[in-house]
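Continuing from yesterday's entry. The apo prediction looked reasonable, so today I'm repeating it with 2-acetamido-2-deoxy-beta-D-glucopyranose included to see how the binding region is handled. Same sequence as before; SMILES copied from the compound registry.
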Amino acid sequence: MFQLSYPVCLLGGLFGLLLLVSVQMAQTPASMCTPLKTLNYSLSHRQQYMKHNFPINYTIRVHSYEVFKLSNISTMRLQAEDLVLQRLWFLVNQGVLKKIIRVLPEKHPSRSYASELERRFKDAEGVFVQSHPAEVFQQELPETIQEAWDHLTEEPDRVLESRWRFATPKALLDNFCHTMHCLFSECFCSREQQQNYCSASYWRKGKKKKNEAERTAG
Ligand SMILES: *[C@@H]1O[C@H](CO)[C@@H](O)[C@H](O)[C@H]1NC(C)=O
Ligand SMILES: *[C@@H]1O[C@H](CO)[C@@H](O)[C@H](O)[C@H]1NC(C)=O
Ligand SMILES: *[C@@H]1O[C@H](CO)[C@@H](O)[C@H](O)[C@H]1NC(C)=O
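Holo prediction written out below.
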């Protein structure tokens, strides 16, 4: 009897382990939520620090692949799983933050905000790397993602002129924020209602509401 139940237990245990692993792979690990919520808190001040403290229509030069929006995600989801897109999200926004910080002199009123944002972003990235097995980061990427990856990691002086784009710091951080909610939505779900953070209309709706409030106030 023992001889029979032992392998059965072992098999059951293995199955449980596999189940656990696949569940962990599919979802955002809970440990990610604390650093991401901290980032979300910082991002809620982006209007002041990334718009009001800059000259009107001030833009910075970024790589075309650093323009990473909700519409990119909906296209890329046909080719890649979310974990891959999360990795891309980290790569893109690391570059975006670096480029924003580079244009800010030491004494600029947004300098410490941007540095703190970068620090918090790195904290989140650290947790992200720790919470997945190392093999995940060595996996071969789907072709289109690999192409974006290669362009994002090439030497700046080798980037073709036609690949550069101009964007306002605020627009870049809007993309940063919206895509974060979309790709890590499990950390931002409210208990009351299911939100579709991946739809552009969700964010437009919020903006409209805010504008209306401002109009009423003014
Ligand atoms: C994220 O920040 C927004 C403010 O921009 C806030 O309304 C929302 O509740 C925050 N979400 C979480 C999960 O902390
Ligand atoms: C800023 O850009 C908007 C939209 O492109 C334009 O209508 C506006 O005149 C610009 N403002 C300044 C001060 O250049
Ligand atoms: C997102 O889409 C825009 C416009 O289609 C494109 O220029 C940009 O390279 C895309 N971003 C990524 C990360 O693929």
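Comparison notes:
- Residues 28-189+196-207 form a domain with the Growth Hormone; Chain: A; fold (CATH 1.20.1250.80).
- Confidence is low (pLDDT under 50) at residues 1-12, 21-26.
Will overlay with the apo model tomorrow.
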